[in-house]
Write a structure and sequence with these properties.
mainly alpha; Heme Oxygenase, Chain A
Length: 233
């Protein structure tokens, strides 16, 4: 995240970076095998078909979280994030839709996913973010969603680079991941800015750190589960 952007939430962002590094997410087998070339296209395709269930679900807990933010000004940034998830009201640009286009570009048939079973790891991830956003302390939900967005910007860039280098997708046809590599740092900063003012309160800082740690854990666990799905486990 650029320094000018981080100024709205510098302390939360710094904490998020430390937690992500400690979590081991950048060294998990999914990203490593994609980067070193040992992941097959078939394994990648199977894993991404399951990841679709996280993509299409993610706006729902976000919508619930928006309703819990007491400040209209703070709520507005997250609301815009939610609108972007829905393609600025253009159905062709829904993230649900752009990810289906990505799946087609790697040889999948996303229209058949409605009949596909949801892997337990995907249900677990969706359940964790829902619980954090709906039932937990506000700082836990905001921190959890924010660090997932923060991590996904870098992961999107890694995946985009990987599929182009492997010639699975042409650069000019790369959709969804190219977009998220660009916008998710801003999305994360908008989440972090909501809870930055609470950093000086030790009790609320505890919940911020809990949310960041939960999001980092859940997202790392998701990619480890996707690695297992891709390998037929």
């Amino acid at each position: 995240m650029k320094t000018s952007d981080a100024s709205r939430a510098a302390r939360v962002t710094d904490c998020a970076n430390r937690i992500l590094e400690a979590s081991g997410i950048w060294r998990n087998p999914y990203l490593q095998t994609l980067e070193d070339g040992t992941m097959s296209l078939e394994s990648f395709r199977r894993s991404q078909e399951q990841f679709f269930f996280a993509v299409t679900f993610f706006p729902r807990p976000m919508a619930a979280l928006v309703a819990r933010i007491p400040s209209p000004k703070s709520r507005l940034d997250i609301l815009h994030n939610l609108v972007e998830e829905h393609g600025e009201f253009d159905e062709e640009q829904f993230h649900h839709t752009t990810f289906q286009r990505f799946l087609r570009s790697i040889g999948s048939q996303p229209e058949k996913l409605e009949e596909a079973p949801l892997a337990p790891g995907l249900r677990a991830f969706n359940s964790v973010v829902t619980c954090a956003c709906v039932l937990d302390e506000l700082e836990v939900g905001v921190g959890c969603m924010g660090i997932i967005e923060h991590a996904f910007a870098r992961i999107s860039a890694l995946i985009g680079q990987g599929v182009v280098q492997r010639q699975w997708v042409r650069q000019e046809e790369l959709v969804h991941y190219a977009l998220h590599a660009q916008i998710d740092e801003r999305h994360a900063e908008e989440f972090f800015a909501v809870i930055e003012p609470s950093w000086d309160n030790p009790q609320r800082r505890y919940f911020i750190e809990q949310g960041l740690q939960l999001g980092a854990y859940a997202f790392d666990r998701l990619y480890r589960d996707l690695y297992a799905v891709g390998n037929g486990q």
